[in-house]
Design a protein that fits this description.
The chain has 278 residues and is of the alpha/beta class. The chain has 11 helices and 8 strands. The chain has an 8-stranded mixed sheet with strand order 1-2-4-3-5-6-7-8, with helices on both faces.
């Protein structure tokens, strides 16, 4: 049995985990959790169709030394869905509203997938209050190489418009990769299919509107790290190097590597946090 098995890496955080909420500028309720104490605070932002519980494994690893903040993005988890504009700018403003509500002055931003773009936008807007940025299986769009004819790169958006259940199920299997357990695949599938289709599709379609990832990364003068999967959208190491991103790839993993291999992920994240603020 490896140290990443559910039996040995179940969350064991026994401190206070407080659920809070605030109202975004457009009236949408944003739900978030706060646990632990210590700087820099770690702010976790999930990806498309995810939720704050994707970071359960990080409570035990980090809440003893840091304040840990986990956010449900608008349209996801326990946050509200009554929004028409699913832009990165509004998602970033939601994250900033949480950081401001908590009065945080030193943060490391950790974003998975879509959340990776959001935290770059947050970092640009917050400036010196951000000590570092960590992207989790994200930023594949930085590649200057033509994307191969590989299903790992494909988003079945047209299929989801025709039949959301079928298209989203296909996408879940692409994201999870060949080694994910049936339990993990089922969990992600249940979460994706629980989203209102108009919200899920709106978020995917609004992801790149008015947002330029490369420009955002160039504007940052802080340590930027990546923790990447092996199988979903393989990353362009040369592009990461060009942008000054320190990357760690966890072999054998799919898109949800923090759920698939939490102990190994936590070790990589601890190294990225240590680089932040240097």
């Amino acid at each position: 049995m490896t140290d990443d098995s559910p039996a040995t890496h179940a969350p064991r955080f026994d401190g206070d985990l407080e659920r809070r909420s605030l109202t975004a500028a457009d009236g949408v309720e944003i739900t978030y959790d706060v646990a632990g104490s210590g700087e820099p605070a770690l702010v976790f932002v999930h990806g498309w169709a995810g939720n704050r519980h994707h970071w359960e494994g990080q409570l035990d690893a980090f809440a003893g030394d840091h304040q840990v903040v986990r956010i449900d993005l608008a349209g996801h988890g326990d946050s509200g869905t009554a929004r028409a504009d699913w832009s990165m700018a509004l998602f970033a403003d939601d994250v900033i509203a949480v950081i401001d509500a908590l009065g945080l002055q030193h943060v490391v931003l950790i974003g998975h997938s879509l959340g990776g773009s959001i935290v770059v936008e947050v970092a640009v807007k917050l400036g010196s209050r951000v000590d570092g940025v960590v992207g989790v299986d994200t930023w594949s769009g930085l590649s200057e190489l033509p994307q191969p004819d590989d299903p790992a790169y494909r988003i079945p958006l047209p299929e989801m418009h025709v039949d959301f259940h079928a298209g989203a199920t296909e996408f879940v299997h692409l994201m999870c990769g060949p080694n994910a357990s049936p339990q993990l695949v089922q969990r992600i599938s249940d979460e994706v299919l629980a989203m209102p289709p108009d919200v899920a599709l709106g978020v995917l379609e609004g992801a790149g509107v008015g947002f330029h990832l490369a420009d955002g990364l160039r504007a940052l003068d802080i340590p930027v790290s990546a923790i990447s999967s092996q199988y979903f959208r393989p990353k362009d190491e040369a592009a990461f190097t060009k942008f000054g991103i320190t990357n760690c790839t966890i072999a054998g993993t799919g898109h949800y590597l923090m759920l698939e291999r939490p102990a190994e992920f936590d070790r990589a994240l601890a190294e990225a946090i240590a680089r932040s603020g240097q």
